[in-house]
Design brief:
single chain; alpha/beta; Alkaline Phosphatase, subunit A; 2 domains; 8-stranded mixed β-sheet; 5-stranded antiparallel β-sheet; 15 helices; transferase; isomerase; kinase
Length: 396
């Protein structure tokens, strides 16, 4: 038996007038997911405990089976783990986003999805000019980077940049112990990067510059129990984003690199399915397959992209997975669940339950519930503690 947990990040949404009151999950053409829903079980799960920010870090930790209230220390240390950034006991890791700003307003949380090559050029300048014994910068993918503050401060309030796009930055600057140091980095980076040749070129091309650092999501190093030791299953993770890679490394899941996986609408969907099947053939019992594109589309407020991403996932991820298992004549259990909602209208994450779909190739059900937000009201299968949902997948 093979077990797959497919996470279309941020796929859940709210009804939209542009879709005649439907959500993107309802409106998208998803024949494979529709068929699985008819033959499986559709339920509702609260992936983020009440009182915690509905971020992908908390939600995916929960879906992987780790109780966030017990194990979560922050987003920064998870992404630091992905980049194998060494953290001592008192080192504080921040997610350090490269954003676009005019000095007063946060214009774009992703610097127009700046390329990794451009971002690394800029981060090299940041490390050279702003790096010190206290502050070390580590380049990641696209706009996502890491700041390590040696003997740093934790008692700070910081804000995810995707929550404040288009808003003044002043009310959202770091507040608390060490705020002056972080605010200094933010404005020093703006002065350093705004006129860099990379950003001059981006402006000439009509693209947002990557001209300011925005540190947030701070925390101490994360430690998780070994997944195999806890679950008795050899596991693998496929993802394009460092946050999930970090979770995998902390849980000792094998990270499978997929060429062309970008974390955006242009990602290599079909490659994710193919490499996932190869990982299962090579000995993995459990595959965590994460697809970031619906979440990015939600943050952009781009309905067309969100619909496209859902249809691409259905056609180029779910379809090939089903074909692969059919060819192999191998039994499998598949759990499909968004980690959280990223509504188009809000352009950020929203708390609350999300729908999930559980399919077992050995014992098909006869369900009348669709895999979309309508199931949240109608289902009797409700999981109130998200970290326990994986038990439904692995029990078979």
């Amino acid at each position: 038996m093979k077990y797959i947990l497919l996470v279309p990040d941020g796929a859940a949404d709210d009804p939209l007038p542009e879709l005649d009151g439907k959500t993107p999950l309802q409106a998208a053409r998803t024949p494979n997911l529709d068929a699985l829903a008819r033959g499986g079980r559709v339920g509702s799960v609260l992936t983020v405990p009440e009182g915690m920010y509905p971020g992908s870090d908390v939600a995916n930790m929960s879906l992987l089976g780790y109780e966030p209230a017990r194990y979560y220390t922050g987003r920064g240390p998870l992404e630091a783990a992905a980049l194998e950034v060494p953290l001592d006991e008192r080192d504080v890791a921040f997610r350090c986003s490269l954003v676009a700003s005019d000095g007063d307003t946060l214009l774009d949380y992703s610097s127009g999805h700046i390329s990794t090559d451009e971002a690394r050029t800029l981060m090299a300048v940041v490390q050279e000019k702003l790096g010190s014994r206290r502050f070390t910068f580590f380049p990641g993918v696209s706009y996502r980077h890491i700041l390590r503050w040696t003997d740093g401060k934790l008692d700070l309030k910081t804000t995810p940049p995707h929550d404040i796009q288009g808003q003044p930055i002043a009310p959202h600057l770091p507040v608390g112990d060490g705020e002056d140091a972080l605010r200094g980095l933010i404005f020093d980076s703006l002065e350093l990067l705004s006129d860099h040749p990379v950003n001059r070129r981006r402006r000439d091309e009509g693209k947002p510059p990557g001209n300011m650092l925005w540190p947030w999501g701070q925390g101490l190093a994360t430690t998780l129990p070994d997944f195999f030791g806890t679950r008795g299953k050899k596991g693998a993770m496929i993802t394009a984003v460092d946050l999930l890679r970090g979770l995998a490394r902390c849980a000792h899941l094998r990270v499978v690199d997929v060429p062309g996986a970008t974390g955006y609408i242009d990602t290599n969907y079909r490659g994710k399915a193919q490499y996932g099947l190869h990982a299962l053939d090579a000995g993995a019992d459990f595959l965590y397959l994460h697809v970031e594109s619906p979440d990015e589309s939600g943050h952009e407020g781009n309905l067309d992209h969100k619909l496209q991403s859902l249809e691409d996932i259905d056609r180029d991820v779910v379809g090939p997975l089903l074909d692969g298992f059919k060819q192999r004549k191998q039994p499998f259990r598949l759990l499909v669940v968004p980690d959280h909602a990223t509504p188009i209208a809000l352009r950020t994450h929203r708390p609350g339950p999300v729908p999930f779909l559980l399919f077992d190739s050995r014992q098909e059900e006869n369900s009348s519930l669709p895999f979309d937000e309508r199931a949240l009201e109608d289902t009797r299968l409700r999981v109130e503690e998200g970290h326990k949902l994986i038990d439904l997948l692995l029990k078979g």
